[in-house]
Amino acid sequence: MREVKIGIIGLGNVGGGTLSILTQNRAQIEQKLGFPLTVAVVASRTAKSKTLPAGLDGVLVTEDWREVVAHPDVEVVAELVGGTGVAREIVEAAIAAGKAVVTANKELMGLDGVALGRAAAEKGVPLAMEASVCGGIPIHAVLKEGICGDRVRGFFGILNGTSNYILTEIEKHGTAFDDVLKEAQRLGYAEADPTADIGGFDARSKLVLLALLAFGMRIAPADVPTEGIQRITPTDFRYARQVNSTIRLICGAEATDNGLFLSVRPSLIPLNTIMAGVQGAYNAVWVKGDFGADTFYYGRGAGALPTGVAVVSDLMRAARELRGGSATRVSPFAFPKPVDAQPREIGEQVRPWYLRFRVADRPGIIAALSAILAEHEISIDAVLQLADQDWRNLPFVITVEKTEESRMRRALERMAGLDFMIEPPLALPMESGL
């Protein structure tokens, strides 16, 4: 069977890792496919300054991505530039030219993936995006095919390696958030502008993609309640331990008879769950099915080679589908006709809560807070106070029993206006359903 020629657009970490795997694992890739997978063109704005891996002599190198799409021998285009501007042009142009597309772009796929998937289906070409969520974890394949016979009731994910690295470093070493962030930037885990990671927006793009695969519902990312990790302190981990928990940035999806709850936010999770052991830049997804019960998926969430493996696997899948004549064998989003949907109002969700306060100490504080909670029919579970030497900035925690989030938010708004508050209370849901 004749070779499939591919074009790579983007030579950042993922593009570089992809090329390394394609060259170093060339023989086994050919054995698995039954035909060669050959790089014909590589494009990057800085292509002239890049050194390609050994074994790519003779490959066309260009700074213009259009040369990749227009190349007559290229059958599969890998878009690895990211973002929603030029990347969208690349994907749309490749599909229009009848080329298969492989992408690692969670932002573009979360925003417009359904429309691009329809365009690819109309053209009869594959669109693959395994690397867009969880790096080296094949979670797309799991939801599309591996457990597609089950009915997913919900999932919990740690989908951003940067945030997970920061939180676990704070937990292990008691280091302040800003100091850990600087170290993450030095090590290359965090960007110079880390907002997408620490603010939860990167994880949000991934969550809407997984929701599409699991439930067939297209949710606008902006409709997903999202909170970042910027306010988490070493003190919060000390208190979390008091209730046998730790803190992770959790992407949650819960299907109910009345709709789908979605959220991205730091949450307390029990120490005795497997999710609590996910450390550093690793990702994990815990899926709950009606019939197959719980399944768990764990691995590197980022990095040149783990993500490159996902890209190369997609390139191989697209090549097989092109040669096997089944380019639309499985919809890229598991459901042939996903439906547009709004998530349920998060205020209707019921959870126990962790409330951390920083106050200027004086008599009557607990009584004032308890009165507000009682007004909103919220029951206190425990009041926790670790020893602290600074009476002017005293942290303590109240945990409350299960309550509707809307009621909790109204109480917090009242509390934030009390004159002894140094900062607004920090409220974290306690996820006991993992």
Low-confidence stretches: none
Fraction of residues in helix: 25-40%
Instruction: Please give the domain count.
Output: 3
Radius of gyration, CA atoms, in whole angstroms:
24 Å
CATH-defined architecture of the largest domain? 3-Layer(aba) Sandwich
Strand order of the largest sheet: 3-2-1-4-5-6
Quickly name the level 1 CATH class of the largest domain.
Alpha Beta
Number of strands: 17
Shape: elongated
Main β-sheet, in a few words? 6 strands, parallel
Beta fraction: 25-35%
CATH fold label of the largest domain: Rossmann fold
Specify the structural class: alpha/beta
Number of helices: 14
Characterize the structure shown.
By secondary structure, this protein is α/β, with parallel strands linked by helices. It folds into three domains: 4-135 and 304-340, NAD(P)-binding Rossmann-like Domain (Rossmann fold, 3-Layer(aba) Sandwich); 153-300, Dihydrodipicolinate Reductase, domain 2, CATH 3.30.360; 349-429, Alpha-Beta Plaits (2-Layer Sandwich), CATH 3.30.70. The protein has helices spanning 13-24, 26-33, 65-70, 86-96, 106-123, 139-146, 161-173, 177-187, 195-198, 201-215, 234-242, 304-324, 365-375, 405-416; strands at residues 4-9, 37-43, 60-62, 74-79, 100-103, 127-128, 152-158, 217-218, 245-256, 259-270, 282-289, 293-300, 339-340, 350-359, 380-384, 394-404, 426-429. A six-stranded parallel sheet has the order 3-2-1-4-5-6, sandwiched between helices. Strands 10-9-7-11-12 form a five-stranded antiparallel sheet. Helix 1 (13-24) packs across helix 12 (304-324) and helix 13 (365-375) packs antiparallel against helix 14. The longest helix is centred in the last third of the chain and has 21 residues, at 304-324. It is elongated. The two termini are 48 Å apart.
